[in-house]
Amino acid sequence: MTHAATAPQRGSSISTRALTKTFNGNRVLQPTNLEIEAGQILVLLGPSGCGKTTLLRLIAGLETPDGPDMIRFDGDDVSGVPIEKRNVGMVFQSYALFPNMTVSENVAYGMKIRGMERSKRDAETRRLLALVGLEDYADRRITAVSGGQRQRTALARALAIKPRVLLLDEPLAALDAVLRERLRVEIGLLLREFGITAVYVTHDQAEAMAIGDRIAVMDRGRIAQIDVPRVIYHRPANDFVADFVGTMNRIDGRVSGGVLSLESDDTGAALAVGGPDRETVLCFRPESARLANGSAAVRARVVASTFFGPTQRVVAEVTPGRRLQLDLPSSLAFDPGQIVGFEIEREAIIEFQEA
Amino acid sequence: MDSRRFDLLLILPLAIFTLAFLVLPLARLTLEAGSGPQGIAGFFVIVTEARFRNSLIVTLILSIITTVATLAVATVAAQTLANRRFFGRGLLLSMLTFPLAFPGVVVGFLIILFGGRLGLVGSVTKSLTGTNVVFAYSLFGLFLGYLYFSVPRVLLTILAAAEKLDPSLVEAARSLGASPLAIQRDVVLPALFPAMYTGGALCFATAMGAFGTAFTLATTVDVIPMLIYTEFTLATNASMAAAISIALGFITWAALAIARSRAMRDVSGA
User: Fold this and answer.
1) Å from A329 to nearest chain B CA?
2) pLDDT the model gives residue A243
3) Start and end of every ABC transmembrane type-1 domain (chain B) (predicted)?
């Protein structure tokens, strides 16, 4: 992708106040307060049916919120402004490109609708196509370009109207894995280069981490946690977030005298976490496990291992049935039945209050 | 058996059908037409003789108006029905296929019951204004009859296409600021076009050649199929009937070909 000079567009800030949406008496979006600064990229992440697409469509103006003054752009109430007048750029999973137009006609369409002069329109179309690396495909028919090129055309088309905010609804979901990984880096760079306010919906956590300035993890119509990717990953606010983002190990048991102890023949655990005596669930990420010998905090029996290259994912049982996933250096071989000893740094252990 | 021979075998039924019902009759018809007193010129009487020419013009205009009206009604209705789910939708759609089952003569009778001398419209207007409005035997009656059996089949064709239209296409156009009119022009109609062409072609060809309805209603107007019938049975001028038949077939085919090439050029946006 070439980096033609782009004047930062900024875009508008978005805020929602107790935004709700009810379909046929079924409230699919619980009261939601959201602040997105101008130029920021917020990713809405969650499983299907969590309300992320509804929230995006409300911001777009494709759905009407339950009440007045629930959505503001730069402080102006836009709740009642229809999408045609809201000046938002949209990118869809299905691309939604006009098949009866060429790549450049698609990009120019919004400017044409706005009555922009032909020469200015052509120049702007060329600039945008160069920006997304499609200058050689300008006159191709939509059916004659690849999925990745289609999505970049859709992005250029959305940016062409200089939108206040850019809204992307699972834009990469229809692409194959390799292309998806490449495009998510490209799109992330491009959005930052443009400096436009963007809301990006996905169910793919890797995509969310790569693209978002902040991530809002959604669950059953509400935002479970909203924060920068690093915090979402390392300090998930609750069980749901921990489970949905990355892999999380769980060890449940009783903490007494500040230590959670498990014993079973030659395996077991003794995790010093401090605090009062309680029944609890301790969680940690696979990569937090550090190999240790002798009086290791945790000893587990290897069940299986999968080789990834730089690391390997080892599945081991700390007591029968309590399986853990560990990312360990791939230089050592772990055979099924073998005992592996490891430690977890105190900071890497997460304990949920309600667990 | 090699695959080539197998392919030939597969196409054999169609080949026999084409030969028996298209090539041979057409050849016979052509010979018949050419054997008339005017010889080859017999093919051109449809344009050279005023009576035939007027009839051709009437038939063409009637068919074009029927096609345009059918497409207008069907396209609007298809879009309305495509994305709405309501109680009785399935029943409504199956009832729409009902007129397809009627022969043309029955459609003719229905129009007479509606707009004939003792028809519904006539009785109502007579009791209201004192004049008996009769239109069943006019071109307008024919038009209504054609519309009656054209709308359902064209509607079902376009409906299938409208249901396949990706709703995010319309949403994308809206986000770019397009008005409902612009969305119709730039997004919806181009997407529905192939179905509209198929439906429209069917409608036009049917209207050009419809006989049953015309036979029941066309007592004062001469549409081409009626002309062929009269030439063949009353005037016993078989060669003339054959010549007009071929000319009718050719003109219908040519009109569809022109419409197709023009429309394809429009839709490709070149």
Assistant:
1) 47
2) 86
3) 56-259
Q: Are A69 and A94 in contact (CB under 8 A)?
A: no
Residue A281's pLDDT is 87
Q: Are B256 and B205 in contact (CB under 8 A)?
A: yes
pLDDT (tens digit per residue) in B112-168:
999 888 888 888 888 888 888 888 888 899 999 999 889 998 999 999 999 999 999
Residue B248 pLDDT: 87
Are residue A276 and residue A132 in the same domain, yes or no? no
Note whether B189 contacts A: Cβ–Cβ < 8 A.
no
Q: Is B172 in contact with A87 (Cβ distance < 8 A)? A: no
Contact criterion met (CB < 8 Å) for B269 and A101: yes
Judged against a pLDDT cut of 60, whether residue B1 lies above it is answered with no
Question: Is pLDDT at A107 greater than 90 in this prediction?
Answer: yes
A310 and A258 share a domain? yes
**For residue A353, what pLDDT is reported?**
62
Q: What are phi and psi of A137, to 5 degrees?
A: -115, 10
User: Could you tell me if A149 and A141 are in contact, meaning their C-beta atoms sit under 8 angstroms apart?
Assistant: no
How do residues A48-84 score in pLDDT, each as one tens digit? 989 999 999 999 999 999 988 999 999 999 998 999 9
**Rg for chain B, CA atoms, rounded:** 22
Judge whether B52 and B43 are in contact, CB under 8 Å.
no
CA atoms of A104 and B62, how far apart (whole Å): 42
| Residues A136 and A276 reside in one and the same domain | no
Residues A224 and A142 in one domain: yes
Contact A161 B182 (CB under 8 A): no
Shared domain for A216 and A347, answered yes or no, is no
Domains of chain A: total: 2
Q: What is the CATH number of the domain that holds A38?
A: 3.40.50.300
CATH of residue A271: 2.40.50.140
Across A169-183, A188-202, A224-238, B90-104, least confident range? B90-104
Q: Which of A244, A262, A281 is the last residue of a domain?
A: A244
Write down which residue in A192, A212, A244 finishes a domain: A244
- Judged by CB atoms closer than 8 Å, whether chains meet at A83 and B174 is answered as yes
CB A190 within 8 A of CB A222: no
Structural domain range at position A224? 14-244
Whose CA is closest to B159, among B149, B151, B168? B151
